[in-house]
Amino acid sequence: xxxxxKRIWAGLLAATLGGGLLAxxxxxxxxxxxxxxxxxxxxxxxxxxxxxxxxxAGALEPCGCQKDMLGGLDHVGALVAAxxxxxxxAVVAAAGPLFFMEEKLAPERTEQDTWKAExxxxxxxxxxxxxxxxxxxxxxxxxxxxxxxxxxAGGKLLAANVSGPSSAGAAARALREIGGVKVAFIGVSxxxxxxxxxxxxxxxxxxxxxxxxxxxxxxxxxRVVIGLAAMERGDAIRAAEATPxxxxxxxxxxxxxxxxxxxxxxxxxxxxxxxxxxSNHLTRVAAIDFYVRGEGRFADGSGLxxxxxxxxxxAQIDELDRRVQSWEKDPxxxxxxxxxxxxxxxxxxxxLQRAEAPPPAPSGSFVRYTLFDxxxxxxxxxxxxxxxxxxxxxxxxxxxxxxxGKRAPAPDKGAPWYVGVEYCKLCHTAAYEHWTTxxxxxxxxxxxxxxxxxxxxxxxxxxxxxxxxxxxxxxxVAGLEAVQCEACHGPGSQHVDDPYSFELKAKPDxxxxxxxxxxxxxxxxxxxARLDKILAPGHGKPxxxxxxxxxxxxxxxxxxxxx
Length: 563
What we know:
This protein has 563 residues and is of the alpha/beta class. It contains 16 helices and 17 strands. The chain has a seven-stranded mixed β-sheet with strand order 4-3-2-1-13-15-14. A six-stranded mixed β-sheet has the order 6-7-9-10-12-11. Helix 6 links the parallel strand 9 and strand 10. The longest helix is centred in the middle third of the chain and has 23 residues. The radius of gyration is 27 Å and the shape is globular. The N terminus is likely disordered.
């Protein structure tokens, strides 16, 4: 997504993040029954809003190595609170893995990941979670833990096609009255094949279950029927085709692994069913606004027929924006060419704005869809932020004790080990002085200030030689705090022993940097431009002063490993 933007797909309400949704034009509304729901619609607010989360998968917030990263439960809390006046009758629903990032918990991470899941559950309760359809990851700590997280989150665990002693009390559907409107939520989950399903979980036909429960919900008087499907996208779309009783089908993955972010899928109508799938890890949140005007199904109030045009323009803008940002940082780039590309970027954004212009509101009931980028400029919900802070402190205190005494593996006999910047600076004075001015030198202090320096999600990219032979661990970082010389140039014990015989690598490979500077930790990473920022006279640029000889009387580092 373009920096600082709120992307609205397919002819939706164009507005800034600060302004939120534009109210629907009063002149476009048809008179109708003067009930609470219709009155709200006549006044410009939707009768009902459903925020949809897809594949949150244990992502409490982004790493934070770069400003304005996508994601953060505290930002979603701020969004929901800020939009309350415009959409007073709002709930949250989720599909796909919710509480855990991996299908199986690593033994050393069990406590940390479980406590993070608890923090997520507490935040979701504050957001007003109504229901969720689980993915395979949600069983990673066992059915009892899933049931406990369900209760903490406050939403119904829905999986109409799942049964068995480890189903964690999954229900088929949940019926709620919101803003005077009966809303049914139906969940289905196909976490994997029956052979690979969690122990004690039986998986039935998801499409048949969805159809059965949708018909039952309509018979019970549900005005809005929302399906939540944790299953492969192709299967979910076929389920939407077979279940016209649904108004919306929100898709999440059956299972996930890793912290890589994906892109949202353009919303589309499959017959009368609006199919949505926002991106994973809470990087974006979909808002579906229902305007109830009497009976009848919900028409498209967003112009989704233009979804492909908007999606194509969005992709072009994002790619060009990344390139322009890279060129702006490159002193060798031709300024006229860069200016021309900026003009082209502005032209594309103008086309996108015109394509996103909402069509006139339909005369009857209709639905509108908006996709919010979850970014810093949404603000932070204090209660959620405080809960996140408590989680980080709890984990920090625990891991400090749990991993006390843990040491990195020893290097092979005769191989080098990490000595730390205090030895490097004795000879490479100019390089050291430059290093103290860049962010790498402050990387560990930044973590410690936020109570994240013993957090397994964070520490590896903020120290030198993490888990490498002769390097550091989550607790054993003395002398190797921050991203030091050896992070790029390799372990230096042999070079320190004999600086004239053992040369270190002069320049790091790109993979050394992208090992940490990759999505979701960093976006728009340009290796050449960023490398230029850490070079200086005395550190890879012309005009460097001569390195010093080892000072008289200096002592070599103690021999930690057999030579």
